[in-house]
């Protein structure tokens, strides 16, 4: 076949009815709805999307309201995204060295984690190449110090975004910022606006809500609610709504639901444009800076190299959604200071997506997908409704003070934890395919620095204290505000990490009584081995047990305190409850489980003989492993 014949080839057209007929036949009696799944956003995902699913008013061109397809007509070809990996270092010299190496190797923005560097002095900060690259720095507790440093430095052409979200940051701490704190932040932002018109200093950071369990539309609605708070607050300080938006940067964390996260960024722009129109903001003034980081929520200390796949997928999703800067987490930073390899990979992921996947050469690559366009529309609708509900209840500060926001996030976090615990959702190396032979790195203690807390009357008074040797910590202003329920985040893997650390301390082991031939017991033995591994418990198999005597002999030889019986249902019928009774006769304190689920009637007979529990699909792994470790620790303590 020559090239012309190849070009002439066409796939046959398949109608939706033909697809449904074929799919139904393959389901062997199950309804087509069995292929549907529900998301955390209460959106039902269908197995196939077509023209009838997408809205008839779907935007056709980027650069036009509602800006679903991006703020710029030329996409990344017009405004390339910036690789803004946040460099981590525990001293200024190491930071300077790491930043120089990163910039030389292709990173094109300055970003670093200030929480690791509270001892950095004004002279050390001023020595950084601040004017040569855009700045994307989350100042967290140190906004006033960094603002003071910038205003005292000799720089004049700064651009990018440096700021602290005083709503979400304080909510993490269980606080709502008080009037003194708000006044200091407003003064600092006003001075920065005058000195550096291209530098964004009003930060909206939804990452704390993401890490507390928020779903996609909740993150969008909370970003909108925070925007209203900042606009209304700074209006009282003399800012116009357009000036607030011009000085604002919106920062998202990107999770593991690939298409949902892409749709999240697209839906946000729709909602954002609508919000701006309500304030009379139109045209280029709507085009707020949007950045993203890969999710800490999905990082795990277990089988940590899998984190590379997670961050790579999340980075891809963020770029499809359209961000101005991207921060990729190091795969091993969850254990403390990342390794050189971790930082190199984090820095290179955006470069690979740019230079090898060519994402920078396609305008809105996700545009036109019936699936993504439908997701975007549904997310936008849900987010806007949720945002209006927050505003009708008094706004985001009122929601934090009432505790309704925290309760909502806690409910969603519990649902995500539960689905991981019952393996409805998989996390490789954590709740499935656990590797008990890996060396789990312990989390390094965070740098502890005494801060010189002080109360100052104004930001200018604080800035006047800056000298060459002034440190960030010395300019830390005292927090003031009212207490609220903290917006408490966690990583999904943390409950499993705690189990594994606990099990390692006692070298937890379990014996598997394997009934019948290998091919008969292997499916359940493999299942049990995998389940036990997620809790850090090593399985020791008996080999083929054809009689009660062989099972009892294995128990006497292995001398373990916990056993699980594995085999086919037919083997359970053959051996019966007397197998458990014989095992208990060797040691009455043995704990014995059975793989699979017995009917209530049969289970009662086995329990009467001494069966303690069962291991089965859909069981809560956290609860089961905790129960087993309680037993194993008790035995270890007695011995």
UniProtKB/TrEMBL annotation:
Annotated GO CC locations: cytoplasm
Keyword Isomerase: yes
Coiled-coil stretches noted in the UniProt entry, renumbered to this chain: none
Entry's Gene Ontology BP terms: propionate metabolic process, methylmalonyl pathway
SUPFAM superfamilies documented for this protein: Cobalamin (vitamin B12)-binding domain, Cobalamin (vitamin B12)-dependent enzymes
Protein family membership: Belongs to the methylmalonyl-CoA mutase family.
PANTHER family: METHYLMALONYL-COA MUTASE, LARGE SUBUNIT (PTHR48101:SF1), METHYLMALONYL-COA MUTASE, MITOCHONDRIAL-RELATED (PTHR48101)
Name the record gives this protein: Methylmalonyl-CoA mutase alpha/beta chain catalytic domain-containing protein
């Amino acid at each position: 076949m020559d090239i012309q014949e190849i070009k002439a080839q066409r796939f046959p057209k398949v109608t939706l009815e033909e697809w449904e007929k074929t799919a139904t036949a393959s389901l062997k009696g199950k309804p087509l709805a069995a292929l549907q799944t529900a998301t955390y956003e209460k959106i039902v995902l269908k197995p196939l999307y077509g023209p009838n699913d997408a809205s008839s008013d779907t935007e056709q061109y980027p650069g036009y309201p509602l800006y679903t397809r991006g703020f710029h007509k030329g996409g990344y070809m017009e405004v390339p995204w910036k690789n803004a990996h946040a460099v981590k270092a525990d001293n200024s010299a190491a930071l300077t060295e790491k930043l120089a190496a990163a910039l030389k190797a292709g990173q094109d923005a300055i970003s670093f984690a200030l929480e690791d560097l509270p001892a950095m002095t004004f002279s050390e900060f001023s020595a950084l190449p601040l004017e040569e690259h855009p700045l994307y720095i989350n100042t967290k507790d140190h906004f006033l110090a960094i603002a003071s440093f910038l205003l005292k430095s000799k720089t004049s052409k700064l651009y990018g975004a440096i700021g602290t979200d005083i709503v979400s940051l304080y909510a993490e701490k269980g606080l709502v910022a008080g009037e003194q704190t708000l006044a200091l932040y407003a003064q600092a932002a006003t001075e920065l606006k005058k000195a550096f018109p291209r530098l964004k200093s009003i930060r909206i950071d939804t990452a704390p809500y993401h890490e507390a369990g928020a779903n996609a539309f909740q993150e969008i609605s909370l970003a909108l609610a925070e925007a209203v708070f900042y606009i209304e607050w700074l209006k009282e300080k003399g800012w116009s709504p357009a000036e607030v938006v011009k000085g604002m940067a919106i920062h998202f964390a990107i999770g593991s639901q690939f298409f949902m996260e892409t749709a999240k960024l697209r839906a946000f722009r729709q909602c954002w444009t609508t919000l701006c129109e309500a304030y009379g903001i139109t045209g280029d003034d709507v085009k707020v800076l949007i950045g993203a980081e890969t999710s800490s929520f999905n990082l795990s200390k277990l089988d940590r190299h899998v984190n590379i796949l997670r961050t790579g997928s999340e980075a891809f999703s963020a770029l499809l959604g359209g961000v101005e800067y991207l921060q990729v987490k190091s795969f091993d930073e969850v254990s403390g200071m990342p390794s050189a390899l971790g930082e190199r990979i984090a820095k290179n992921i955006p470069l690979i997506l740019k230079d090898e996947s060519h994402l920078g050469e396609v305008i809105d690559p996700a545009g036109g997908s019936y699936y993504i366009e439908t997701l975007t529309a549904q997310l936008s609708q849900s987010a806007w409704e949720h945002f209006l509900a927050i505003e009708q209840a008094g706004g985001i500060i009122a929601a934090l003070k009432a505790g309704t926001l925290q309760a909502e996030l806690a409910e969603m976090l519990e649902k995500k934890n539960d689905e991981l615990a019952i393996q409805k959702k998989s996390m490789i190396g954590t709740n499935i395919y656990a590797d008990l032979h890996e060396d789990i790195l312990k989390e390094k203690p965070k740098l502890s620095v005494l801060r010189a807390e002080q109360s100052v009357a104004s930001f200018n008074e604080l800035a006047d204290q800056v000298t060459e040797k002034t440190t960030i910590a010395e300019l830390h202003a005292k927090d003031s505000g009212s207490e609220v329920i903290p917006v408490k985040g966690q990583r999904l893997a943390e409950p499993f990490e705690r189990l594994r650390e606990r099990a390692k301390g006692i070298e937890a082991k379990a014996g598997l009584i394997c009934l019948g031939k290998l091919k008969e017991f292997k499916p359940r033995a493999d299942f049990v081995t995998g389940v036990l591994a997620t809790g850090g418990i090593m399985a020791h198999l008996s080999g083929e047990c054809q009689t009660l005597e062989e099972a009892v002999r294995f128990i006497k030889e292995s001398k373990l305190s916990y056993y699980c019986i594995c085999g086919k249902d037919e083997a359970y019928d053959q051996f019966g409850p007397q197998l458990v009774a014989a095992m208990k006769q060797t040691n009455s304190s043995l704990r014995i489980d059975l793989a699979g689920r017995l009917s209530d009637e049969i289970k009662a007979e086995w329990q009467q003989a001494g069966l303690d529990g069962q291991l089965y699909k859909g069981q809560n792994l956290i609860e089961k492993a905790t129960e087993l470790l309680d037993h194993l620790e008790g035995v270890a303590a007695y011995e």
